[in-house]
Amino acid sequence: MSPTVEEVNIVLPQTVVAATPQLLRRVNAQAVLGHVRSTDVATGTELMALTGLTRASVIAVCEDLIRRGWIRELDGARMELPATVSPESPRKGRPARRFELNPAAGVVLGLDIGAATTTAAVADLRGNVIGRASGRFRTTDIPAKERIRVVDAACRQALEAAGTDPGQVLAAGAGIAAPVDRDGNVLVTQHFWSLFDVGLRTALKELHGWTVLLENDANLAALGERWRGSGAGVDDLVVLLAGERLGAGVIECGRLLHGRAGAAGEMGYLDLVEGVGSSDGIASLARQWSAEGAAAGRSGAGGHPASARRVFEDAAAGDPAALGILDRIAERMARVIATVSGFANPEQVVIGGAVANSAGALLPGITALLPRFTATPPRVTVSPLGDAIVTVGAIRHALDYVEANALELALPGRTGQR
């Protein structure tokens, strides 16, 4: 029989932690809370099967979570037979103990902080978005205080739209367009990246008492896609944010990769790749090549360069110039994905971000070309999450933190939980 979490040491990356009673309580609570969150109602028997815990341990964990306000017990509405009793037996079972998540326990925030705009999404503890708001930065290169002010305003507006307040926030996941190491520190070796090193974690902690989990936006996109996108459940996955600039979130064997300074998945190396030459994204390439066509008199739209959306629309209508641009983009993306396959060997590569709504038109060309450039072509899809992909991942990141720290977090309006 496989050992349960009650019986083994807890193995973490590159270390082994002794299974102390305190650690086991925390791990067991995380497992139970995660399963209760993922379903409407869970019985004790179901939680035993899902977690590998004994009935006594499941009940003890559930009662602790009830006392702390995380879950609620429902009245028994059906009978639950002991494992040794056949369903055909005339003997009666005992009432099933049924548990559900307490929807009023609190909320989490998911933030997508770009160079020009920021979006805040409020989600309940099942991950359902109940409020959203966006803000725009006056310029890209603005003072840190102003960037924080815009982010905070978007958070407040989203909370108001959700009918809740800052005191209900248990954690906030925040994605930025810069590398972030495992400790939440921004890599500032490039000027653009340094624009996001504004002290957001400290500022929101001082303003509201929030725990802010800072992460690279492409990494959060990968978490979101693996949770609720076309890559759901895939353990070896790469998500390419492919709008203006390319960036990748890499999941290997179910684990998000960061690298030493958080720069795993950065695509600056594409400057050196033959047939690619830059990390420009799909929207940027569509505009650039449309402008080239306009200058040469080959473009539609009255001889003027078109937006990326217009290029895709013209291609769908059969415009030869637009179709030629899409063919060039498909080859460029096939070469990019081939390089990713060479060092990460993913099962699936997902094209994500706002451009995903149009990028489906590129898939046949990319799929046909990949075997020319790599011996290990992955499955290529587009994300169904659209421009919400980063906030979805940020919400998941915040929920993971909440579940892992449920025994340490004090829920709003409750005291004496420990």
TrEMBL record:
Transmembrane segments: none annotated. It holds the Pfam family ROK. InterPro entries: ATPase_NBD, ROK, WH-like_DNA-bd_sf, WH_DNA-bd_sf. It comes from the Bacteria. Belongs to the ROK (NagC/XylR) family. This is ROK family protein. It comes from Arthrobacter oryzae.
